[in-house]
Specification:
This protein has five helices and three strands. By secondary structure, the protein is α+β, with helices and mostly antiparallel strands.
Length: 116
């Protein structure tokens, strides 16, 4: 009897999933990428705690652009940013959470062509 062995190669999936609601939204590419990162890392009981510097390295844009983009997402009510001081006044912690209801509403309406 021949016994088949599974290969010992371990495949890891590395990447980011962009939901259709975000992909087809009327947002800039930087807003889409950051919002997709926030949504991906906020699933379940996880929270998004990346610093602006870390987000800037991930997206390959300046920290100033990250500041502007996060403010824009907050102004559009797509995310909520909460700053806490869990270690006293020494260090602050920012937690960003997605506004799930608003994200479902941002999808562009599909324009259908009418045949005459």
């Amino acid at each position: 009897m021949v016994k088949l062995l599974k290969p010992m190669v371990k495949h890891e999936q590395i990447g980011i999933w962009i939901d259709n609601d975000i992909l087809f939204a009327d947002l800039t590419i930087t807003e889409k990428l950051i919002l997709a990162d926030i949504v991906s890392l906020s699933k379940g009981k996880n929270v998004y705690v990346k610093s602006n510097d870390s987000i800037a390295r991930f997206t390959n844009v300046s920290i100033r652009t990250i500041n502007y983009t996060i403010k824009s997402l907050i102004d559009k009510d797509l995310i909520v940013s909460k700053i806490t001081y869990p270690y006293g006044n020494i260090k602050k912690k920012r937690v960003i959470t997605p506004n799930w209801k608003a994200i479902k509403m941002i999808r562009k309406p599909i324009v259908q062509k009418l045949r005459i």
